[in-house]
Every structure is written in C-alpha cells, then in structure tokens.
Amino acid sequence: MNKQKFITLDNITDLLPKDFTEEQIAKAKTLFYKKMALEMHQLYGGKMQTIPKAPIYGFNWFNVWYTPGVSSVSTTIRDDNDTSFQLSNRKNIVAVVSDSTRVLGDGDCTPSGGLGVMEGKAMLMKYLGGVDAVALCIDSKDQTGEPNPEKIIDFVKMVQPSFGAINLEDISQPNCFKVLDTLRKECDIPVWHDDAQGTACVTLAGVINSLKLTGKKMSEIKVVLYGAGASNTSIARLMITDGADPKKIVMFDSKSTLHKNCERYKNDPRFYVQWELCQITNPNCITTPEEAFKDADLLVALSKPGPDTIKTEWIKLMAEKAIVFVCANPVPEIYPYQAKEAGAYIVATGRGDFPNQVNNSVCFPSILKGTLLVSARKITDTMAIRAAHSIAEFAEQRGIDVENIMPTMLEWELFPKVAADVAMQAIKEGVALKNLTWEEVYNAAKKDIMEAREITQMLQDKEYITPIFDEVIEKIMNDVIQSLQ
C-alpha cells in the first residue's frame, strides 16, 4: 500500500504557507504543475510506449507474427482493405495529428513542441477510453514560412490507411476550420477536432447541468461567447443546434464583436465559420462588453489566458444566478474566487484544481471508443450533442450542485456509458457499419478500459515505471514557494 502523503497531488496545497492569499495559491499551483511536468517528462522521457498485444511463446512465433507467415495477412488485406480492421490494430488506434501552431495558450511551439500535449492526449485515450493512439506532430509550413492547411490535409489522407480515426489538435485558425471540414468530407475514417468539437461537447454538458441548477432554459438564456476561435465557434454551433437562440448570442473576438456588418470576416473567405455566425447572432450589433454582459445568463470564455482577461465589473453586470465558464489554459480568464466575489453563481474552468473542471478528457476518449466499436465513418454534430447529454445525465444521476456540475476523469463508469450512447446515435444516423446493441458496446468498452488501467497499475506495482516519492514533490513545491516570496 502506498503511504506517500502527496503522491496523488490531491492535497498539495497543504505544502503552501498558511498565510498565502487565494491569488498566491492559484499562482503557486500553476507554477507547481509546470515545474512538475518538466521534471517528470525528463525523468520518464515522455509518457507513452509500445508493447505487444499478442503472445510470444518462443522464437518461432516470429515466423507467425512476421515473415514468412504474415504474408497471408498482407494479401488478404490487399484483396479487401476492410479486413485491415480485423487483422491489425487499426480498429482501435487513433492518430493524434497536430502542426503545433496553437499549443494551449503558448501559440506556435514548432512541430516537435506539441509532442507533450499529443502524448498526453494518447495517454488519456488509453487510460480513460481503452483506445491506442500515436502522437504525430508535423511541419505544415510552406516556402513562405506560413502554416499551409493543404499540407495537413494531404498528410492525414496519406496516413489514414493505418488508423481507425484521426484526432486533430492544436492547429491555428483559420486553418483548423478548413482542415476539419475538408477531412470530414473526404476521409474514409472519422475525423475529430478536439479543440473544436471536444471542447464544444463538454462545455454543452456543463451548460446543460448549470441550467438545471439555475432553473433556466436553453432557448431563453442570453449568452456571451468571449473568443471566436475553433472552440467557441463550435460551442455556438452545438448550442444553437441544441436549442439556444442565436439572436440572444453575442460573440467577441480580439477586436470587437461578431455581427452582420463585420467587414473583417465578410471579406476574408478563410474565416467562413465566423462569417456564418456574424449573420445569425447579435442582430442588434452590440459592440461593447458593457452592453453584452448586461443581464447575460451565461458567459463562455475561451480566449487569452488570464487572470485579468475578463473583468470583475463585467461579471457584476450579469443576470441573477449567472453562469461563468472561463476555460483558457493554463490560467482562466478570471480566477473563480474573483468571479464568485463579483456575483457569479456557478463558475467552471478548464483546470482540475478548481471546482467544475470543464475538460475535454471526459468526452473524447469515450466518443472515439464508441465510434471505433461500431466502425462509424464519421462523427457528426448530433453524436457530439448526444455525448454531451450523456455526460450531463451521468452527473445528474449521481448528484450535482453549484460546485459539482460535471463528472471527473476519476469516474471511470462514465466512459463506457458515453461510448455506448454515442455508438447508438451513430447507428441511428446510419453512419455505423456495425449494428451492435447498447450492452455490447458498453461491455466491450468497459473491458478495454479496465484492461488499460490494470496494465498500467501492474507496471507501477512491479516498478517497471519508476516510482515517485514525496520528497520530489516537496522539493518542487519549495522551489515554487521561494520564487513567489
């Protein structure tokens, strides 16, 4: 039994001085996780590896798994490419593709700079969804030095014969819109953009439960979307599809608001997604935060990392029982305690060390798992909406309150449920090639998830994964404390 006091990182604030303010605590935790991440990645050399899934009883088994025996596998797949899903791991492997031009809040990190995030995505897929994944960070820049969406599109088309699905990640706008929409139309396997669709799905789930707690209706709420990138434009699309009134939505970008007179979008076809929203939202052409936030029921901010991006005076203008989602990483646009002091009723962020984490990790592993299990050829918006409602239902059934609107990654039972619900939606829409029952998908997903967790635990127990001790954690936190004093 592990007797380390801080190894789970659940109670690291116990290491901080008792006289630290809430702002100092928030800064200390952010700095701690960054320092800890660098130390741990250095120690382990990343976080993913490849191990066999088939037995090796003796040297002659390589004649079965490799040459000469494997020739029969090659010719069988040659004659029917669909058999690649049965004769290889293709049915359960995802390519996590990024050009690393918009990594978290750090911008362009160069292609290799995205590996930490992409490996993290692969780790979450395996541990939470029982899905294998490979990080593929590519150079999308052309001869002018600018990112070229066509290079990403061509790359994905070339590698798709090796994978069951594609997860796009951290691609800067406006390229991300063209890449996703083109690949969704032209690929033979499902393509998922987690920054857009994943964030929209999990945000919608949080909004659904927040509305239940405030007694408000999706069709009646006044909404401010702060940020007009891949995440918030997708959130707008899913919310509208799920019943929100576009006329009651005001969206901000870095310059002003989106509305029908926005020349910067009207005249630039690369931003066609924003221009579509310009034509259906903000009919009164509101342009200032003061106008937009007045009596608003919901704020969803996915913009520049804070903590001073969203002003407390704006929150004070919002309606009674205001719902505030400030989800920039690594620091929210306003700290939760500040938003609460300004009158917010429910506050959610993208971070797990604050209440109400709205994190893609509770949706994308199960959405991809359900999609793969029924061999769906695409992931539709309505599949993402079904996942959002499934997540919200799971949380409501076990109990929700103003500081607990969402399930967490610890609640493993969530993932096979969402996988099964998504799979049933795919079958209903006619995009699935396999017609399985809800129970069949649930049981298959549960088996793979439990197996992934048990293998990881076995590697830890046998110390094939080097153990960490409290001394390391305490040293890093002491360094953080000294830097803040």
Task: Describe this structure as you would to a colleague.
The protein is α/β, with parallel strands linked by helices. It has a domain at 88-189: 3-Layer(aba) Sandwich (Rossmann fold), CATH 3.40.50. The chain is built from 19 helices and nine strands. It has helices at 22-44, 62-65, 71-79, 84-87, 115-129, 149-159, 175-186, 194-214, 230-241, 263-266, 272-280, 289-293, 312-316, 336-341, 364-373, 381-398, 414-429, 438-461, 470-484; strands spanning 93-98, 132-137, 165-168, 191-193, 223-226, 249-252, 298-301, 322-326, 344-349. The strands form two sheets. Strands 6-5-7-8-9 form a five-stranded parallel sheet. It has a four-stranded parallel sheet with strand order 2-1-3-4, sandwiched between helices. Helix 13 (312-316) links the parallel strand 7 (298-301) and strand 8.
Round the mean pLDDT to the nearest integer and report it.
96
- Could you give the count of β-strands? 9
Text of the CATH class of the domain at 88-189: Alpha Beta
Strand content: 5-15%
User: What can be said about the biggest beta sheet?
Assistant: 5 strands, parallel
Q: Globular, elongated, flat, extended or rod-shaped: what is the shape?
A: globular
Query: Which fold does the CATH topology of the domain at 88-189 refer to?
Result: Rossmann fold
Question: Assembly state here?
Answer: single chain
| Cα distance spanning the termini | 36 Å
From the 3D coordinates, which CATH architecture of the domain at 88-189 would you assign? Answer: 3-Layer(aba) Sandwich
- The radius of gyration is 23 Å
Approximate helicity band = 40-55%
- Structural class comes to alpha/beta
The ordered string of helix (H) and strand (E) elements is HHHHEHEHEHEHEHEHHHEHEHEHHHHH
Strand order of the largest sheet: 6-5-7-8-9
**CATH superfamily name of the domain at 88-189?**
Malic enzyme, N-terminal domain
